[in-house]
Structure formats: structure tokens, C-alpha cells
UniProtKB/TrEMBL annotation:
InterPro entries per the UniProt record, alphabetical: DHS-like_NAD/FAD-binding_dom, Myo_inos_IolD, THDP-binding, Thiamin_PyroP_enz_cen_dom, Thiamin_PyroP_enz_TPP-bd_dom, TPP-bd_CS, TPP_enz, TPP_enzyme_TPP-bd
PROSITE patterns recorded: TPP_ENZYMES
Stretches assigned to the Thiamine pyrophosphate enzyme central domain: 218-349
The protein, known as: 3D-(3,5/4)-trihydroxycyclohexane-1,2-dione acylhydrolase (Decyclizing)
Biological classification of the source: Bacteria, Pseudomonadati, Pseudomonadota, Alphaproteobacteria, Rhodobacterales
All residue ranges annotated as the Thiamine pyrophosphate enzyme N-terminal TPP-binding domain in the record: 59-127
Entry-linked CDD domains: TPP_PYR_POX_like
Keywords: Hydrolase, Thiamine pyrophosphate, Transferase
Coiled coil (UniProt feature): none
Biological processes annotated in GO: inositol catabolic process; isoleucine biosynthetic process; L-valine biosynthetic process
Gene3D superfamilies attached to this UniProt entry: 3.40.50.970, TPP-binding domain
GO (cellular component) term, any one: acetolactate synthase complex
Occurrences of domain Thiamine pyrophosphate enzyme TPP-binding (ranges): 410-562
Length: 616
């Protein structure tokens, strides 16, 4: 067996460049990099040497580079991923938030974080975090709770085992998430005689675990005994590529489908069994079906608090079934577990159910809900008045009905989940971590992962101010997408939660409620233009529609700024009460207050949490 003498960093990049998908593409599409001490010498030299076979992309911030990588993986339905490398210290810790985002959302991400010297010769090195009681700790230990696989490369031969382990986790549908390799900076530059066979191309197949026959039989019996079942479809449906199977299953057995944030657009809104969003920000039709159901069938969902109305959405007598690729998620809320891949499990279930059909769902409720959405999102007659978020969504829907709407935090995630009527695959939401600042970088990564789709990024002024610099990267790389920047002059979503949901007074969220002498007047058009994007301010929804159409002709991002009113839309559930459409969301309320309004809200809150299912 021959060997090749390479530095550890060169060997890592060479190995990554030959890890393939069954379709013949690189599984790791390339590496995002900001160089500093800790990765510029080792990884920098290695990436330069392999630049013709393994691309390197420069971003503006480590966190947002990783957000772009995560969005790429999500758009690729977890069949491909990207890597990110950072320098030691702040470069690495900037990535911790992004790693947490990937971890919560079960999305693959490879982090190669620069680390201290393995030899400890220049100890402490610049930017080194020292633990006075543990000499093995570095800043990169912050990644441990937010990574699915963590390893420290302190010898060049460590990559022989660490790299395959990292990709094994990233391609595992049950344990998928971020893999973090803390790469000691001196070791990156050390040479080693690596076996030639280590660099043979390898194809990574994503398995489809089949369900246990006994579990399958028990769940089939439960469904056959149910009259009013409902399906809650989550992200696992999409990652399993089970959309068509789910649609056929729902039609054949006449079971309405409600969707989570991650599962939305698995079925097109036009599908007759798609009853809309579930939970806190759910539709009247979907939530009514859930409240009245005798069996709730989760498919690829974690039954998160927004999905379940903080455990108040489903009746106390309803049985829960959870089809999930991971036993941990399948057992949540005391559900009857059915562990397996969503696609093959639904196919097997349908075979056992035969000609079973549930009672006819309330189709009139579905139609009434869709009519209500149309009315709420209709073109405003007064184009000179500030539109609501719903009217903005309606304008975008009319201008780009087949686009992928994407977002992450603030008011828009609830509004879009409730009101956007997607084509299949026309929705991309990061809501597991609901990370402000994901939007612009995420839109870039989404467009890289799905270049054939039109991408519309909805972002509020608060999230835009938090992280917008990857606009410049998208301009440099000629990655076109459209940003609809809704400006309500502050953190409008949290202001509503503060005042309506928790009984508080408006404070420190909207600019007008902050302790400042001068209200900021931020020119977002000028700001985006300065980074090279095409930017314009829309005077109303008619101009917004026209600008979205015009953006399709450009090869750089387009930013459309539109001022909106800071008020509720129907069905947010933000007011933390079981409203006409929305449902309860458990956000703790102060037990002691000098204000009567706050005390009254606490009494109301006690009544609401008493309805929650307590089974974990």
C-alpha cells in the first residue's frame, strides 16, 4: 500500500473533495472561509492548493457563512452540505450560534474550527481562552452541546478516523446535525504519510430505516379504529422526500393534513387534504381538525410548542402516534412510537390499512379558511397607506406564486405559515431556532441549493439590522434573490408579545419606546445599495409587485423596502389566548406585579397552562 505525504490540512481538503453523492456530486460542495491566525497557514494553503477541485468562498461573518451553508443543506433536503472554517477564538465562537441552529433543525454542517497549539509551545496563544483548572479546554469546547459529533484534531493521523465519523453523522437521517472538528493550528501544518486508499472516492448513501413490524401493526390498528384522525406533517416528510407518498396516503385514507413550519409546502396548498398550518400560528381549518381528532399522526415532527399550542391543541382523549426516524423524537408527548423513514413507513402503513377511510373531513372549513386568507391578503384600496404584513404577503403571492418564500424570525414566520399558499417546495423557514439574522445569508444559501427556484426573502427591519452583510457576498458571486424588507421601526413581534401576550407595558422594543433622545432614520435603500445590491423603496403593494417582477431580470440581489403598520394579523396566537384561528403559546407571565393588568393576565395564564398535556 502506497502513501502520500501531505500536511493534515491538505489531507483533509483532498479527502473532502472526493466524498460523493450517488448522483455524482460532491457531498461537501465546498468550504466557506474567513482566514485568521489558526487557519490561514494550514487550511488556507490547503484550500489554495485544491481550489480547482474544491471551491472556497469568502463571506463577511462566520455565523452568516454557516447560515448560508445550512440553508444550502436544507434546500438540498439534507443530501448535500457545506463546510465552514474559522480562525481561533472569536472566529470560532462566532460559529456557535450557527451550530446550534443546525443542531436544533437536524441539518448537516461541517465546522472546521481553528484551535490552540497541540504542542502548547506558545501557550497561551493570542485569543486563547484559558481554563485555570483544565489545560485541555479551549474556546472550541463551547461547541460540545451544539454539535452531533465533536472531535479535536491534535495529531495529523486523527483525520483518518475523525473525517469519516463526521460525515457518517451528517448523512445519518436519525442523528443528522453539525459535526465540529477543532483543528489545532500547528497540526494543520504538520506532514504525515497518509495511505493512498484514504483518498479513493467514496459515495455516501442516506439510509431509509424500515419500521419494526410490531410497531407498524399497533399503529395500523390504532388508525383503523379512529374515525377522525389528523396528520401533522413536519420536516421529516421533506427530508425523506415523502411528499407525494404523504399526499397519496392522505387522499386514499381521507385524512386531513396540518403542517409545521419545517413541513409546510411538503404538500402544495392546492392539495385537497392540506388544511394549512398547525398550532399557535395555525389555520382555523387545521386547528379545528386537530381539536376534534381522536387520533393525531405525527410524521417527521418533534411536536414543538408552536405546533401543539404548548400541548393544548389536541384533546385529552386523543391518541398520539409519532412516525419519526429517531426514537427520541418518536416518543415525545407519550406518543405511540413508530420509528422509521417517513416515506417507507407511510407506504407500509397504507398497505396494511387497505381500503380504510376516515370520516370525511370538513372541506367547507378548509374553503372558508382559504377565502379568509384571500380577503386578508387582498390588494389594499388605499395605496398611500402603510400595508399590513398580510397585504405585503398577498402582493408577493400575486407577483411570484411559484417562488420559495423564506424567513426566520419576527412576525413574518407566523404570518407566512398562516397566509402563504405555496406551490410544492415553495417554503423555507428556519424556525427550530428562529434565529434573527439568518434571513439574508439563508436566502443566498437557498438560492445556491435550488438555483432553479425564485427566492423571496422576507425580513423585518430588526433582523436585517442584525445581519445583512452577506448581501455583499451575494453581489460578488452574482447570486440573485429578492429581499422584501418590512420596516415597522422596531421589534414589532416581541412588542406584541410583551404587551398583548404577557400583559407588560411597551418598553425597549419599538424605537419609540426606547430611552433615546433621537429616533433613528435608517435609509435601508442607501445601505443595501452601498453593498452593491439593487435597492428601492416601494410606496405601496402595487409598486412592490412591479419591483418583484423587475428583479427577475437581475443577476444581483434586489432589496425592496416597504413600510408596514405594526399591528396584529388574524391568527397569530401572539396574544397567548385561544383565539379564532390561533392557539395558546406558553410564555411565562410574572406572578407578582403592581399593575392590575399584569395580575389579571397571570390569572388567565394559570387557566391556560392547566389545559396542557403533561406527558413528555
Amino acid at each position: 500500500m502506497g502513501t502520500i505525504r501531505l500536511t493534515a490540512a491538505q489531507a483533509m481538503v483532498k479527502w473532502l473533495s472526493v466524498q460523493m453523492t450517488p448522483e455524482g456530486q460532491r457531498y461537501i460542495d465546498g468550504m466557506w472561509a474567513i482566514f485568521g491566525h489558526g487557519n490561514v497557514a494550514g487550511m488556507g494553503e490547503a484550500l489554495h492548493g485544491y481550489r480547482d477541485v474544491f471551491p472556497t468562498w469568502r463571506g463577511q461573518n462566520e455565523q452568516t457563512m454557516a447560515h448560508a451553508a445550512i440553508a444550502f443543506a436544507k434546500a438540498s433536503r439534507r443530501t448535500r452540505a457545506m463546510a465552514v472554517t474559522s480562525s481561533i477564538g472569536p472566529g470560532s465562537t462566532n460559529l456557535v450560534t450557527a451550530a446550534a441552529l443546525a443542531h436544533v433543525n437536524r441539518l448537516p454542517l461541517l465546522v472546521v474550527a481553528g484551535d490552540v497549539f497541540a504542542t502548547r509551545r506558545p501557550d497561551p496563544v493570542l485569543q486563547q481562552v484559558e481554563d485555570f483548572d483544565d489545560g485541555t479546554v479551549s474556546a472550541n469546547d463551547c461547541f460540545r452541546p451544539v454539535s452531533r459529533y465533536y472531535d479535536r484534531i491534535s495529531r495529523p493521523e486523527h483525520i483518518l478516523s475523525a473525517l469519516p465519523r463526521a460525515l457518517r453523522v451528517m448523512t445519518d437521517p436519525a442523528n443528522c446535525g453539525p459535526a465540529v472538528l477543532a483543528f489545532c493550528q500547528d497540526v494543520q501544518c504538520e506532514a504525515y504519510d497518509y495511505p493512498e486508499e484514504f483518498f479513493e472516492p467514496r459515495v455516501w448513501h442516506i439510509r431509509r430505516p424500515r419500521p419494526d413490524e410490531d410497531e407498524l401493526g399497533r399503529v395500523a390498528d390504532l388508525i383503523r379504529a379512529a374515525r377522525r384522525p389528523v396528520i401533522i406533517s413536519g420536516g421529516g416528510t421533506v427530508y425523506s422526500q415523502a411528499e407525494e407518498v404523504l399526499g397519496d396516503f392522505a387522499m386514499r385514507h381521507r385524512i386531513p393534513v396540518a403542517e409545521t413550519q419545517a413541513g409546510k409546502s411538503g404538500l402544495a396548498q392546492a392539495h385537497p387534504m392540506n388544511f394549512g398550518a398547525s398550532g399557535v400560528d395555525g389555520s382555523a381549518a387545521a386547528n379545528a381538525a386537530s381539536v376534534g381528532s381522536d387520533l393525531v399522526i405525527g410524521v417527521g415532527t418533534r411536536f414543538q410548542d408552536f405546533t401543539t399550542g404548548s400541548r393544548t391543541l389536541f384533546g385529552a382523549d386523543a391518541t398520539l402516534v409519532s412516525i419519526n426516524v429517531h426514537g427520541y423524537d418518536a416518543a415525545k408527548h407519550g406518543a405511540e412510537s413508530l420509528v422509521g423513514d417517513a416515506k417507507v413507513t407511510l407506504q407500509a402503513l397504507s398497505g396494511l390499512l387497505g381500503d380504510y377511510r376516515a370520516d370525511a373531513p370538513d372541506e367547507a372549513a378548509r374553503e372558508d379558511w382559504l377565502l379568509a386568507v384571500d380577503a386578508y391578503c387582498a390588494r389594499p384600496g388605499d395605496q398611500g397607506a402603510k400595508p399590513t404584513d398580510g397585504q405585503v404577503i398577498g402582493a408577493v403571492q400575486r407577483a411570484a406564486p411559484s417562488a420559495v418564500a423564506m424567513c426566520a424570525a419576527g412576525t413574518m414566520p407566523g404570518a407566512l405559515k398562516l397566509l402563504w399558499k405555496p406551490s410544492q417546495g415553495g417554503y423555507h423557514m428556519e424556525y427550530g431556532y428562529s434565529c434573527m439574522g439568518y434571513e439574508v445569508a439563508g436566502a443566498m444559501g437557498l438560492k445556491l441549493g435550488a438555483p432553479e427556484r425564485e427566492v423571496i426573502c422576507f425580513v423585518g427591519d430588526g433582523s436585517y439590522m442584525m445581519a445583512n452583510s452577506e448581501l455583499a457576498t451575494a453581489v460578488m458571486r452574482r447570486i440573485p434573490f429578492t429581499v422584501v424588507l418590512t420596516d415597522n421601526r422596531g421589534y414589532g413581534c416581541i412588542n406584541r408579545l410583551q404587551t398583548l401576550g404577557c400583559g407588560g407595558e411597551p418598553f425597549n422594543n419599538m424605537y419609540i419606546d426606547c430611552n433615546v433622545e433621537v429616533q433613528p432614520e435608517i435609509d435601508y435603500v442607501m445601505h443595501a445599495t452601498a453593498m452593491g445590491a439593487h435597492a428601492v423603496k416601494a410606496a405601496g403593494t402595487d409598486q412592490l409587485e412591479a419591483e418583484i417582477a423587475a428583479a427577475r431580470e437581475r443577476h444581483v440581489p434586489t432589496v425592496i423596502v416597504i413600510e408596514t403598520v405594526a399591528r396584529d394579523f388574524p391568527g397569530t396566537g401572539i396574544e397567548a389566548s385561544a383565539g379564532e384561528h390561533g392557539f395558546f403559546w406558553d410564555v411565562a407571565v410574572p406572578e407578582v406585579s403592581e399593575r392590575a393588568r399584569q395580575r389579571d393576565r397571570f390569572v388567565e395564564y394559570l387557566g391556560q397552562i392547566a389545559q396542557a398535556r403533561l406527558v413528555n
